[in-house]
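Regression check, DQA case 146:
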Amino acid sequence: MSKTIYVLNGPNLNLLGKRQPDIYGRETMADVEALCVAEAKKHGFAIRYHQSNREYELIDWIHEARENAAGIVINAGAFTHTSIAILDALNAYDGPVIEVHISNVHKREEFRHHSFISARADGVIVGCGTQGYAFGIARIAALHGQ
Ligand code: DQA
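Current build output:
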């Protein structure tokens, strides 16, 4: 069994900490990566951590995960609400998928209420801030009995 959990982040999340901090908080992507590494380590897993503003890169990493990943934690940003292509890629992956959103998308604009990814996700964590990533990792570890 692979001991690597993929953590994938979509568009604009590179600006975390600077972008709308009232909604997304002050932590940066580097802070979130460190949090993910620490959480995974507790459960005996490693992390492969990526962010991209390009849909195809996220899709390529999901394809790579087919061979290499114990699970995927994904915050696809706004692609969540638009991308059938990311849904299709996730449907081609057999392991656990946990969808994360830093903000509570259900408290926000109507267009954020629908997620294509939720049709595939085994779990969905919204509105828990960046802690949601740690919950997602812990859940994947638990699904593997770790
Ligand atoms: C987000 C919510 C999305 O609606 C938004 O487009 C993002 C971030 C979140 O983490 O709360 O970019 O996924």
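Comparison notes: The mean pLDDT is 97. Residues 12, 75, 77-78, 80, 101-103, 105, 112 surround DQA (CB under 6 Å). No diff flagged against the previous build.
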